[in-house]
Write a structure and sequence with these properties.
The structure is a single chain. By secondary structure, the chain is α/β, with parallel strands linked by helices. It has 2 domains: 125 residues, Roll (Urease, subunit C, domain 1); 290 residues, Metal-dependent hydrolases (TIM Barrel, Alpha-Beta Barrel). Helices cover 33% and strands 23% of the residues. The strands form 2 sheets. Strands 1, 2, 3, 4, 5, 14, 15 and 16 form an 8-stranded mixed beta sheet that branches. Strand 10, helix 8 and strand 11 form a beta-alpha-beta unit. The longest helix is centred in the middle third of the chain and has 18 residues. It is globular and about 75 Å long. The termini are close together. The chain binds N-(iminomethyl)-L-glutamic acid and fe (iii) ion.
């Protein structure tokens, strides 16, 4: 950080000492969204503050507001935002970005009309990535994962969730989670790790899925918990994944180990996985194309976040829409994420996912930005630290040269942050 002493006098009270002062900006604070999306007048949408100032001290936001209300600052460094917008760092709350191999061939099959489920039944799909991931070394997984993560970072992702789930044996599942930890250390991003041993039944257990689940519960999960390799436990609750009864067993085991749960549910059919997850106070339920309207009150009651993954919807040419209107009517927090994975969403762009959430699912750009900031944070249990511009919150910040925050969802490959700060330190 360059140190240039600066004193900006706005009043006669004692100066507010800070490490970084960003001036001449509009702020999209995203404050006030804890109960879904409030119907705010245009002047207040995005929790906006025009002609604002934001100060950072020790990696956290120490002051923010309109310049006219600001105290005098004594700042180590001043940045002129040149009239741009400052937003919280983006949060991609659902990714599978560590994997071996490629599924481009499968893409060709799908274009010929073979369904995702048919491909999975033929040994393609998740299981084919498992073969490639098992064969990859830790360093290879790190290198390919880093490439994808850098793509997300370039667009302003400062917090990311990364799942295991392409190992489906103890050694490879643990390896994936260790690689996720190395990616966090290497990049300085906040990485939340999710154990997804119950992503698919590996071929060697095809005839006895319960025996595989026993291994997930009795062998993998205890090691993951003991070595503190994950922050949550996930499952693919689906006809081609795990049944609700199996999901319940897994969730009960997760709770015993003190780990919160989340679930891939209602992606291809309605197995009532969301209701089950809500019973366990899941952090989030993800996909939800087949979620029934009648199940919405239960999600609201549990405080569970609904994660929209429009990239998978798009790539699978799905036609059944999640119950978007109902989610917002029930004031359920709705997050938006890439689902970055080699099969159903090879999309390393959270801004594109925001655009897709608007075009395909009908979210407003404001809802899309809330989905990748405050609601994405809640899906990871980080709502007290991230996803908002608020005093005390981590200073993960993005400066954009845009006229209005709706531009982030509107354009495709149009914008990159002009500056990115992680905990108040500028990323070069
Ligand atoms: O989120 N639904 C299951 N898991 C991934 C797909 C993973 C794959 O096909 O490799 C998803 O869409
Ligand atoms: Fe997924």
């Amino acid at each position: 950080m360059t140190v240039s002493d600066s004193l900006v006098n706005h009043s006669s009270t004692a100066p507010h000492k800070c490490d970084l002062l960003i001036e001449n900006i509009s702020l999209a604070t995203m404050q006030g969204y804890s109960e879904g999306i409030p119907a705010l007048p245009e002047a207040e949408a995005y929790g906006r503050i025009e002609q604002g100032v934001l100060a950072v001290t020790d990696g956290r936001i120490s002051w923010l507001g309109a310049a006219v209300d600001a105290p005098a600052f004594e700042a180590q460094q001043c940045v002129d935002g040149q009239g741009g917008w400052l937003t919280p760092g983006l949060i991609d709350c659902h990714t599978h970005l560590i994997y071996g191999g490629s599924r481009a061939r499968e893409f060709e099959w799908r274009l010929q009309g073979i369904s995702y489920e048919e491909i999975a039944c033929k040994g393609g799909g998740i299981v084919s990535t498992v073969t490639a991931t098992r064969a990859a070394s830790e360093d290879e997984l790190f290198a390919s994962g880093l490439k994808r993560l850098k793509r997300l970072m370039a667009e302003g992702v400062t917090t990311v969730e990364i799942k295991s789930g392409y190992g489906l044996d103890t050694e490879t599942e643990l390896r994936m989670l260790k690689v996720a930890g190395r990616l966090a250390e290497h990049t300085g991003l906040t990485v939340k790790r999710t154990f997804l041993g119950a992503h698919a039944v590996p071929v060697e257990y095809k005839e006895d899925p319960d025996a595989y689940l026993d291994i997930v519960i009795n062998e993998m999960l205890p090691q993951v918990a003991e070595q503190k390799l994950a922050d949550a436990v996930d499952v693919f609750c689906e006809g081609i994944g795990f049944s609700p009864a199996q999901t319940r067993r897994l969730f009960e085991a997760a709770v015993k180990h003190g780990l919160p749960v989340k679930g891939h549910v209602e992606q291809l059919s309605d197995l009532k996985g969301a209701v089950l997850a809500a019973e366990f106070n899941a952090l989030s339920v993800d996909h939800l194309e087949y979620l029934a309207e009648e199940d919405l009150p239960v999600l609201k009651q549990a405080g569970t976040v609904a994660v929209m993954l429009p990239g998978a919807f798009y790539c699978l040419k799905e036609t059944k829409l999640p119950p978007i209107k109902g989610l917002f009517e029930h004031q359920i927090p709705v997050a938006v994420s890439t689902d970055l994975n080699p099969g159903t969403s090879p999309i390393a762009s959270l801004l594109l996912a925001m655009n897709q959430s608007c075009v395909l699912f009908g979210l407003t750009p404001e809802q899309a930005l809330a989905g990748t900031t405050c609601h994405g944070a809640k899906a990871l249990g980080l709502e007290d630290r991230k996803g908002m511009l608020q005093v005390g919150y981590d200073a993960d910040l993005l400066l954009w040269s845009i006229d209005h925050p709706s531009e982030l969802s509107y354009g495709i490959n149009m914008h990159r942050p002009a500056k990115i700060w992680l905990a108040g330190c500028e990323v070069q």
